């Protein structure tokens, strides 16, 4: 049985991230002279360098809000999404989703969320409808009864009827990403986590996805967390934005406030990308990290 999109808490908060830290270990490299290499092998293998992906982050996402997280590659955006979606456990701090703790009440949280990442996974030999039928059955829904909804959602995302029964491997990445968003929608999440969902899409596919995200929030009351590299997308969709830099939130505000705070005499009307560079000192695509975060 499908659950309703709308859900409410006494506080009005959908997600609360409270002083959360997440670290990863990475083998530390050394250069040893030949006589010492064998003696040092064991200690080198044991020695670890700790990479702090998320560093004492706190944020609150309100119910029925589209909340954006901007950050360069390696800033911690995807790690934050994985912590909220129960795929990672915080080293310190707490995360709650509609009042449920993501560690102690993982099962309840999973029933409320769905996630779309930049690299969606499918059965490529199957068609969009076959993939969606399989997905809804995993959530305990009737695939046959859900078929009209599947067709309608795919059409809303710009997938023509003649493509609905073709193998996904014959479709563009943009089309596949639309199917991923349709799959997430059909499970009726009250919290939808979109991790760079339009990266690499053509302009038309990107526009279709963005319009669908707005309809999802406006018509169904879903709360949406969006990470993106697209400044125009963030500016158009998000009510509030947190800028993440080296695992920390450097500023959180509305898009308009971010641009206003970044204004200078030389640049009185900055774009959101200008504001991002103002607060981080770097372009959004910089700062690759050795550990995927």
Walkthrough of the structure:
With 293 residues, the protein is of the alpha/beta class. It folds into 2 domains: 7-22 and 51-112 and 189-293, P-loop containing nucleotide triphosphate hydrolases (Rossmann fold, 3-Layer(aba) Sandwich), CATH 3.40.50.300; 123-188. It is built from 10 helices and 10 strands. The strands form 2 sheets. It has a 6-stranded mixed β-sheet, sandwiched between helices. The protein has a 4-stranded antiparallel β-sheet with strand order 2-1-4-5. α4 (128-138) packs parallel to α6 and α6 packs parallel to α7 (203-220). The longest helix is centred in the C-terminal third of the chain and has 18 residues, at 203-220. The protein is globular and about 55 Å long. The two termini are 35 Å apart.
Order of helices and strands: EHEEHEEHEHHHEHEHEEHH
The end-to-end span amounts to: 35 Å
Low-confidence stretches: 27-33, 287-292
What radius of gyration results from the CA coordinates? 21 Å
Structural class from helices and strands? Answer: alpha/beta
Count of β-strands:
10
| Number of H/I helices | 10
Helix content: 25-40%
Shape: globular
CATH fold-level assignment of the largest domain? Rossmann fold
According to CATH, the homologous superfamily of the largest domain is P-loop containing nucleotide triphosphate hydrolases
Mean pLDDT: 83
Q: Can you tell me the CATH architecture of the largest domain?
A: 3-Layer(aba) Sandwich
* Main sheet characteristics: 6 strands, mixed
Q: Looking across the biggest beta sheet, what order are the strands in?
A: 6-7-8-3-9-10
Strand proportion: 15-25%
How many distinct folded domains? 2
């Amino acid at each position: 049985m499908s659950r309703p999109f709308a859900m409410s808490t006494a506080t009005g908060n959908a997600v609360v991230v409270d002083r959360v830290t997440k670290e990863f270990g990475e083998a530390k490299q050394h250069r040893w002279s030949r006589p010492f290499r064998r003696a040092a092998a064991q200690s080198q293998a044991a020695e670890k360098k700790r990479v702090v992906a998320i560093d004492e982050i706190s944020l609150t996402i309100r119910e029925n809000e589209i909340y954006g997280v901007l950050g360069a590659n390696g800033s911690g955006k995807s790690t934050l999404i994985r912590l909220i979606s129960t795929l990672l456990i915080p080293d310190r701090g707490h995360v709650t989703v509609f009042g449920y703790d993501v560690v102690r009440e993982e099962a309840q949280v999973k029933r409320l969320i769905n996630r779309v990442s930049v690299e969606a996974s499918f059965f490529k030999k199957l068609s969009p409808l076959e993939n969606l039928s399989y997905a809804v059955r995993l959530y305990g829904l009737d695939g046959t009864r859900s078929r009209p909804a599947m067709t309608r959602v795919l059409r809303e995302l710009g997938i023509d009827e003649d493509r609905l029964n073709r193998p996904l491997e014959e479709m563009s990445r943009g089309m596949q990403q639309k199917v991923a968003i349709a799959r997430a929608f059909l499970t009726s999440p009250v919290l939808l986590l979109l991790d760079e969902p339009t990266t690499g899409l053509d302009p038309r596919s990107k526009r279709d996805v963005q319009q669908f995200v707005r309809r999802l929030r406006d018509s169904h009351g879903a709360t949406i967390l969006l990470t993106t590299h697209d400044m125009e997308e963030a500016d158009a969709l998000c009510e509030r934005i947190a800028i993440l830099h080296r695992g920390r939130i450097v500023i959180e505000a509305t898009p308009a406030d971010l641009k206003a705070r970044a204004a200078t005499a030389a640049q009185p009307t900055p774009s959101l990308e200008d504001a991002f560079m103002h607060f981080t000192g770097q372009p959004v695509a910089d700062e690759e990290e050795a550990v995927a975060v």
